[in-house]
Amino acid sequence: MRKYLFLSILAVLLLPAIASAQAHEYSPLVEKSVNYKNWTLPNLKTDEPENLRKLIEGKKLVMIVYFAPWCGNWRHEAPIAAKLYEKYKDQGFQVIGVSEYASRADVRNFFGADGPPYPVVTESELRQDKQNTPHYEYRQLTGDKRNWGSPWNIFLEPVKVNPTGDLLVEKAWVVNGELIEEEVDKFIASKVGAVT
After folding, report:
1. pLDDT in tens, 21-62
2. Which of 3, 29, 92, 166 is the most exposed place for a label (fewest CB within 10 A)?
3. How far apart are the C-alpha atoms of 85 and 29, rounded to whole Å?
4. Distance of alpha carbon 110 from its chain centroid, rounded?
5. Is the whole model's pTM more than 0.85, yes or no?
6. CA separation (Å) from 73 to 21, 79, 142?
7. Cβ atoms within 10 A of the Cβ of 185, count?
């Protein structure tokens, strides 16, 4: 009886660690048709409207990451996004976060007192808005079958972006899940002309 009790307690203690270790949703970087459109959304820090075309001006490569602050997969990816931004920001790389399905206060709490290291804007604040967001539409177009789709990454090369109109690009590189750091690091380096 003691043996079973011990094993039961051990299983209860280890299950969260096992689930956490298996919770990753890594996905490869793939070029897809997405019909990605320009947007103007409120900045997390200033509440001022930010226009995507303006944010990407003068950059070589931009990674836009859609995330929900409560998402475990985003919590795995957030330090990687910050690390890649720090590594390549002086070489023309920009990260832009788009928060989804949580209040702006929750997003601010996620980033802490110093705030995010890169621009963050808000697309939605309510979970019930999930199927009414452009984020959801882009995920459907690119074959992302996950329930919430956090994180979801799209890479834009500003030199290839349409200079006018709503449509920025028809095709883009996307990651329907968490970044595979080594793969994305090499991709960024190749696009910004960095030597790794």
Report:
1. 458 899 999 999 999 999 999 999 999 999 999 999 999 999
2. 3
3. 17
4. 14
5. yes
6. 11, 11, 19
7. 18
Asked whether the CA dihedral 176, 181, 182, 186 is positive or negative, the reply is: positive
Helices 181-192 & 72-88 angle (0-180, nearest 10): 30
Tokens for 2, please give them. Answer: 């003691």
Percent of the chain with pLDDT over 70: 88
For residue 142, CA distances in Å to 126, 138, 161, 177 come to 23, 6, 19, 11
Residue 3 vs residues 11, 16, 127: alpha-carbon distances, Å: 12, 21, 44
Q: Based on DSSP, count helices (H) and strands (E) in the chain, helices before strands.
A: 6, 8
Residue 14 has pLDDT above 80, yes or no: no
